Amino acid sequence: MLKPTQRLAVVLSSATLLGALLAGCSSDNVSCGLDQCTVSIDRETNASASFLGVEAKFISADADTVTLDVAGEQISLTKGQQAVEVAGLQVSLDSVTSDKIGLEVSRA
């Protein structure tokens, strides 16, 4: 039988883990629900974001197309194109500006 302080520690640890799983994201440039995220990545070398258990790294971009490394797989996204499936996720390009790219990500 657990002592009250041990029970409290277990409850707090569980709540923290559950919160992290529900958020599914690890940075200020990611906004997530249970299984969908809106992601903003700086348009610069070595920029990245983590969400839903994977990391996306910026590789290159032009006016309408972005190339990313998502979970170790290189993908190209074009604005207006249907989502691309990678690492169990559906990833689509929402926006491209001179300094940021916007992605919509959901579980496949």
Describe this structure in words.
The protein contains 1 helix and 9 strands. The strands form 2 sheets. The chain has a 5-stranded antiparallel beta sheet with strand order 1-2-9-8-7, with no helix packed on it. A 4-stranded antiparallel beta sheet has the order 3-4-5-6, with no helix packed on it. With 108 residues, it is an alpha+beta fold. The longest helix has 20 residues, at 4-23. The chain has one domain: Tick-borne Encephalitis virus Glycoprotein, domain 1.
SSE topology sketch:
Layout: H1 4-23, E1 30-32, E2 36-42, E3 48-51, E4 54-61, E5 65-70, E6 73-78, E7 84-86, E8 89-96, E9 100-107
Antiparallel strand pairs: 1-2, 2-9, 3-4, 4-5, 5-6, 7-8, 8-9
Give a short synopsis of this structure:
By secondary structure, the chain is α+β, with helices and mostly antiparallel strands.
Beta-strand percent range: over 45%
Q: Extract low-pLDDT stretches.
A: 8-24
Radius of gyration computed on alpha carbons: 17 Å
- Domain count: 1
Major β-sheet annotation: 5 strands, antiparallel
CATH architecture: Sandwich
Q: Which CATH first-tier class would you pick?
A: Mainly Beta
| Multimeric organization | single chain
The number of helical runs is 1
Which terms summarize this structure?
108 residues; alpha+beta; Tick-borne Encephalitis virus Glycoprotein, domain 1; five-stranded antiparallel sheet; four-stranded antiparallel sheet; 1 helix; 49% strand; globular
